[in-house]
UniProtKB/TrEMBL annotation:
UniProt-annotated stretches for the region Disordered: 19-128
Leader sequence residues: 1-22
Segments of skewed composition (Pro residues): 82-101
Species of origin: Corallococcus coralloides (strain ATCC 25202 / DSM 2259 / NBRC 100086 / M2)
Protein name: Outer membrane protein beta-barrel domain-containing protein
UniProt keyword terms in alphabetical order: Signal
């Protein structure tokens, strides 16, 4: 058969091709470390760090023999030393005895600055000290039997002049002029001569009146009441001022009537006298304002009037400037 001869010829024909392929250079092996020089800008690829060769085999670890100082416990398999027992706990202290609670400390406030000194109030309308030159004062009283209002002005250092009005609740109205001249003025005591008077207007005529305005007031058509007033005041700027006034009221009746038909013709005018006693006080409540309280009585000589008429009044007085 021809099969062996053909096989030999085929092998001879393939021999040159195999030898030529064997002579062709094979591509270099790929490096285990990739080239990453491209990731660093401005650095050429030739300057890339060389790849480090990986160790093929691990070096065996050499076991150091134990030293003589370690003893037999350093050998493998030796038992661990027994730990020392922990120290006993310290003795517990006895509980503290209950103590009284300490009071909370109060917050100490800063001391307030002292108040400014008070301005003195030493001038009124009913005492013995005058207002002084260029000063004015007003006052009002409500009581029995009069309602009064008045004002004073200091024309001189020791002389005050003023005007006022007294009324028995409309039954009698009297316009009065007044003057006060200070005779003695010390730090605590004052004494003054006072006089006031005016013309009274009555609601009813005398022949139709029985225990009316004339009986209550003791006044007639014209009335003048001179007298003395003394007052006292302490050293405090707002000390109250008690005063005592004694006056002689002279009432001039310009139309007297005769109630007894057998007494003849009445005179053209008649004078009656009374003694007025007033005890009161002024209580300063500010630099210029004071409360006023007064009580007293009128001792009369006219037979048709009450022998004694009590008086009482309360009010307020103030110096304007």
């Amino acid at each position: 058969m021809r099969f062996p001869g053909l096989l030999s010829l085929s092998l001879l024909a393939l021999a040159p091709a195999l030898s030529a392929r064997a002579q062709t250079s094979s591509p270099p092996p790929r490096s285990a470390t990739p080239d990453e020089s491209w990731s660093e800008p401005g650095k050429p690829a030739s300057e890339a760090p060389p790849a480090q060769a990986e160790p093929n085999e691990e070096e065996p670890t050499r076991v150091q023999p134990p030293s003589e100082s370690d003893g037999w416990e350093s050998f493998p398999g030796a038992s661990d030393p027994v730990p020392a027992p922990p120290p006993p706990p310290p003795p517990r202290a006895p509980p503290p005895l209950p103590t009284e609670p300490t009071p909370a400390r109060r917050r100490v406030k800063a001391p307030r600055p002292p108040p400014p000194p008070q301005a003195p109030n030493r001038y009124g309308l009913y005492g013995g000290r005058s207002l002084g030159s260029g000063h004015a004062g007003v006052g009002m009283e409500l009581g029995f039997p009069f309602v009064s209002a008045r004002g004073l002005y200091g024309v001189l250092e020791h002389l005050d002049l003023g005007l006022g009005v007294d009324t028995v609740y409309g039954l009698m109205t009297e316009l009065r002029a007044s003057a006060r001249f200070t005779l003695l003025d010390s730090d605590n005591v004052s004494l003054a001569f006072v006089v006031d008077g005016g013309h009274a207007f009555f609601l009813r005529p005398p022949d139709t009146e029985d225990k009316g305005a004339r009986y209550l007031s003791g006044r007639r058509d014209w009335n003048v009441a001179p007298g003395l007033v003394t007052s006292f005041q302490g050293d405090s700027p707002r000390a109250w001022r008690p005063y005592l006034g004694v006056r002689a009221l002279m009432a001039f009746d310009m139309d007297p009537i005769q109630k007894d038909p057998l007494s003849g013709m009445p005179p053209a005018w008649k004078l009656d006298a009374s003694v007025l006693v007033r005890l009161g006080a002024e209580f300063p409540v500010g630099e210029k304002t004071s409360y006023a309280v007064s009580f007293g009585g009128d001792f009369r000589s006219r037979s048709s009037d009450a022998e004694f008429m009590p008086t009482l009044s309360v009010g307020v007085v103030s110096t304007l400037f």
